[in-house]
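Table S2 (continued). Query chain:
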Amino acid sequence: MRLTVHGAAREVTGSCYLVESGKVRFLVDCGMFQGGREAEPKNRRFPDFDPEGIDFVLVTHAHIDHSGLLPRLINLGFRGPVYCTDATADLLGVLLPDSAHIAEKEAEWRNYDRRRKRGELKGETAPIYTVEQARRSLKHLRRREYDQAFEPADGVRACFRDAGHILGSSIIELWLRGRGKEVKLVFSGDLGMPDRPLMNDPTPIAEADYLLVESTYGDRLHKRMDETVEELVFAVNDTVQRKKGNVIIPSFAVGRTQEIVYLLLDLIRRGRISGSLAIFVDSPMAAAATEITLRHADLLDEETRQLLDWQRQNGDHLPYIRFTESPEESMAINNIRQGAVIISASGMCDAGRIKHHLKNNLARADCSVIIAGFQAQGTLGRRLVDGAPYVRLFGEPVPVRASVYTLGGLSAHADRDALLGWLAGFRTPPRRAFVVHGEAATAAGFAAAVRDRFGWQVETPERGAGFDLV
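Corresponding output:
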């Protein structure tokens, strides 16, 4: 039995782990590398193994850094099933074609730019996969329920447990049998914060021989949720009631948008903000993700289900909520001068419809922008957080006169203390624990925290590292 780490090793993206047990070879996750100049070369070099020799894939959740290279794996010869939860399969039906659409547009732009600069095109750049290829890859998905063990191959038993990260996200328990013994592996996937809207708390796991645990925020603590809610209440009320302007919220389409809509509705229900708001969710993907979320309402936490019941019972008295689809509907929002909360993608403000809403509202001192997620270095969202006096949008300078608020407590990832709290649920130490899915310094720091608190044998593997499971 052997485990080889092919991604998310001393970095956050590219989650991919090869497990070999007897004649069975399979993957846990098949994620895309994202961010930085090295991401695309790494994606194009993928994989470092023979795709035709892989029997099946287990996917922890739908985020592209855990699933985004599935179409490429299939294009290169993989023919087996891809197991995931029912909700993850539904989200992949939206996210994988969208990832392919972005890849196609980026390749189209590079080819155009090369023609413009050189006058001819030599060696046309192809997208890493096409929309059609992404759609074909969905035929490989096989749906499984939480907490119901299944056998994807002889000598391998698997079970998905709720990870509380996004809809359908899972911790994977694996039992490998061979040569008269059984070895248990646990892959945390991405773990959510406990006591957060929408999602259930991550499922406690009692034991494992080998554990792989994420460490995205293993070196920091998130702001308390009650403080975050108070900041949201102030920003919305001050903008809409006192300044008579609009609130613009850049938001990721899957997870974050649904959480923000939940918070706004809950605050209206509790009388903390005015029910006269007009809420616009201006993102076709967010609309699709919200529809999928409602379809799987049984996976949401008790508080969210109660809010949905309240919404159904009080539909005639709720604030105006509209999910816009067409470009024409999106452009019409820009005619609204006050009283609107506009939630739109992308979450870091670098693409999509949010740029148009910022162009129309940033220069207005009566408006506000609420930043509700991490903003990477170099993005438009990061420049707003850092207090830029103006930004460029569509080639034109736009002064930043709107108020900019940063909410720090809405991360879908567990912070350091939440990760340690989940690990505290193990009754006995794993033989070995591997800290993955975190930048090198963060992973090393979290590994040290695990050693200090639990005394476990823990390490931060490099990409390509292999380990015998004995």
